[in-house]
Design goal:
The complex is a heterodimer of chains A (450) and B (267). Chain A is an alpha/beta fold and 450 residues long. Chain A is built from 15 helices and 19 strands. Chain A starts with 5 loop residues before the first strand and ends in a 5-residue tail after the last helix. The chains are: A alpha/beta (450), B alpha/beta (267).
Chain lengths: 450, 267
């Protein structure tokens, strides 16, 4: 079936504001040309929280965390306070490429219920390096998993392609710990990984597909370690930072041109990031803050959350997912249903009054779970979710000595400054949300089969 | 047949079938309760004399009680014991405190096992893993190919690889066979009791603590318990809600994931 085609380029952690600035400065000539050809750059809201695994899963499934069940990179096992690391197997809603392939592996969602009946023919997708798709699973096309993909053999569907990628020296991920030991070497790794992504995209681009999702994750790593170099021309790595964006721009231009050429100037093209980035000033250890406020008690024994002791009323998981320590859910829990409301009110006040030395607020938004999540996995949601003012990176670390701490990182995620580039005629009115895009992509294919 | 008879005969059937299909086979014995139970079943399957080698991967960090127990049983049961050690890395001082726990496991367990498999040309390994041991082992199969060259049915593959000894599939061609897969932790203890299988004393409480799962000294911690006999352990398990591996360092993939996340500032 030679029908409509869609190309999506994902760039992890690239902020709207910086892209605008770089286009303006002439660092991204290909992007500038695309924008002049009838595309618009939007500022977009990431998922809540603005963690890559949550945001990309929200993008791929088009539903909120209470439907897809992913709230972060880590999940606390309420039976014994041990940590769990959700992976693709824990995503409870089908992705748009599973819906397009007419095989949702037994999963359903509000989005799937809406769109599945509209398609009669399965469409083929190629999805490369999107975070939280590991381990790769059977789908109609090719899936190469992104972060946190640990083993190439399990990161590729169909598995036979793993050896092809291995032969080309495909880089499944850079080693982020190198960023702490050898900054120059880490930068080299990022450039090298970007080359390998491009090679892999090129390889798969030649095949037959209806939807292609190509994701770059090196931008996020670059930002964590070097975001302060983005606009500071005196920064020793400013030149390298800009060069990376130029290389990225070249990659985007290359695939955009190939896409239009191949499909006679037709097709739906989209670029998005999963969250924005800001320069990091201080880390804010939320669990330390809860300890000082008397909500969290820690014992000496155990690791991380196993240290939660009797008397704990609330604790936080990264970045600021605050959970009440309910007595019917946790072995040492002590909050009864009747007390929840007063604790939530007290916590809200505490967060509202969390201030920097100069008296300026740290928290810009506080949400109750019912306000922002709806779905069958609402029980796993944090009771409160806080968003910080740019510059203050909220952390769920256990056992930190102080609330405010200097960071070894240069950049932090933010929720409000993700980016989106879409054809001008796709108008959202309000600010787009990352969860809106799956429906938009599926809409594009609708009508063909009837 | 009662419940334990059924479990036993299923395991023995798998062990015999495996030996029939793969002559170049060996059993991996960690000296823990599960693989010691498996060893017992192998003896039963072949009327007291195990016809294949028993591999123990020695990291050099095991509990002294485990070495003593291993050598005693090897002697008493006439085992063909192969001790696999990554001598090169042990000499270099590899340990959980040098580098990461993951690196340590990779070198001293995975690579040591790889060396043994290569040296003896083994085509299959019997392991004592159980389905209830860890959530990610839930989809494991009795016969599990570990190479893309074997036609693997991807949909039937585990959603997570359970295996502490997992090595790159391309470099390793062997089957892993899990005759104990259908036992639960409680089944193992009840079977140990019925058969009077010898078990390392670390499992029994001393001064209010005992090990529920054993391995290398630096990566195991005891649980609070007063269960000092098999009967008391069985009673304790019937009321326990804590997962068995709670006292152990995170499993390998989790450890790797955690390292990656930490390097990016999470946790």
């Amino acid at each position: 079936m030679e029908g409509k085609k869609v190309l999506v380029v994902g760039i992890d952690g690239v902020p709207y504001t910086l892209v605008g600035e770089y286009v303006e400065r002439g660092y991204m000539p290909h992007l500038k040309a695309i924008l002049e050809e009838g595309y618009k750059l939007h500022q977009m809201d990431a998922s809540l929280p603005d963690i890559s695994s949550v945001s990309w899963t929200t993008f791929l499934t088009g539903v909120n965390p209470a439907e897809h069940s992913i709230y972060g990179f880590i999940h606390l096992d309420r039976r014994d306070y041990s940590l769990r690391f959700p992976n693709s197997g824990n995503v409870m809603a089908p992705t748009f490429f599973q819906i397009l392939g007419l095989d949702t592996a037994g999963k359903s969602s509000s989005l799937a219920n809406k769109y599945l009946p509209r398609f009669k023919e399965p469409r083929t997708s190629i999805v490369v390096n999107v975070p939280h798709t590991y381990p790769a699973y059977p789908m109609n096309g090719v899936l190469v998993s992104g972060f946190v993909a640990l083993d190439l053999a399990r990161a590729v569907y169909p598995p036979v392609l793993a050896s092809t990628l291995k032969r080309m020296g495909y880089v499944i991920d850079v080693d982020p710990s190198k960023g702490h030991r050898d900054r120059a070497g880490f930068l080299e790794d990022l450039f090298h990984a970007l080359d390998k992504r491009r090679e892999a995209f090129d390889l798969f681009f030649k095949g037959k597909w209806d939807l292609f999702v190509a994701c770059i994750t090196e931008t996020d790593r670059l930002h964590h370690f070097f975001f302060d170099a983005a606009l500071d021309e005196a920064h020793p790595y400013h030149g390298a930072f800009v060069d990376f964006y130029k290389k990225l721009d070249d990659l985007v231009g290359h695939f955009y041109d190939m896409f239009l050429e191949r499909h006679g100037g037709q097709g739906f093209f989209m670029i998005l990031s999963d969250h924005g980035f800001a320069t990091l000033r201080k880390e804010v250890n939320i669990n330390r803050f809860l300890e000082e406020a008397g909500f969290l008690k820690l014992k000496e024994e155990g690791e991380r959350y196993e240290r939660i002791a009797l008397g704990t009323k609330a604790f936080a998981l990264d970045p600021c997912r605050v959970y009440l320590h309910y007595k019917d859910q946790y072995p040492l829990g002590e909050v009864g249903e009747g007390e929840a409301e007063s604790h939530l009110e007290e916590l809200t006040d505490l967060f509202r009054n969390l201030r920097n030395d100069d008296g300026s607020p740290i928290i810009r938004a506080i949400y109750r779970k019912e306000e922002i999540y709806q779905g069958p996995f609402l029980d796993d949601a944090p009771d409160l979710l806080c968003l910080p003012v740019d510059g203050y990176d909220l952390k769920g670390r256990i056992g930190a000595g102080t609330v405010f701490a200097d960071s070894v990182f240069a950049g932090m995620h933010n929720q409000h400054d993700a980016m989106l580039i879409l054809p001008e005629e796709k108008d959202f009115g309000d600010k787009p949300q990352i969860g809106d895009l799956a429906g938009l992509l599926l809409d594009h294919f609708c009508g063909e089969d009837l | 047949m009662d419940h334990l008879d059924q479990l036993e005969s299923k395991s023995i059937y798998i062990i015999r079938e495996a030996y029939y299909r793969f002559k170049d086979i060996a059993m991996l014995w960690s000296v823990g309760k599960d693989s010691t139970t498996l060893l017992w079943l192998c003896r039963k399957a072949f009327f007291g004399k195990v016809p294949f080698p028993i591999i123990h991967i020695d990291t050099g960090y095991k509990f002294p009680e485990m070495y003593e127990f291993r050598d005693r049983l090897a002697r008493e049961w006439g085992l063909n014991l192969i001790v696999g050690r990554n001598e090169e890395k042990i000499k270099e001082g590899m340990g959980p405190f040098k580098g990461s726990k993951l690196e340590c496991c990779t070198e001293l367990k995975t690579n040591a096992l790889k060396q043994v498999i290569a040296k003896y040309g083994l085509k299959a390994i019997l392991l004592g893993i159980r389905r209830d041991e860890h959530g990610i082992r839930a989809k494991e199969r009795y016969f599990s190919p570990r190479d893309t060259q074997f036609k693997w049915n991807y949909e039937d593959q585990p959603a997570e690889i359970w295996d502490q000894y997992k090595s790159k599939v391309e470099e390793e061609e062997h089957f892993r066979i899990h005759p104990l897969l259908h036992f639960t932790e409680l089944d193992v203890w009840e079977y140990v009791k019925r058969e009077n299988i010898p078990i390392v004393e670390l499992y029994f409480a001393k001064d209010g603590k005992r090990f529920r799962s054993i391995g290398c000294v630096p990566c195991c911690s005891p649980i609070e318990s007063n269960a000092s006999s098999v009967d008391e352990i069985i009673e304790e398990l019937k009321i326990s809600k804590t997962p068995e591996r709670a006292g152990r360092a995170q499993d390998k993939e989790d450890t790797y994931t955690m390292q990656k996340l930490r390097a990016l500032g999470y946790m």
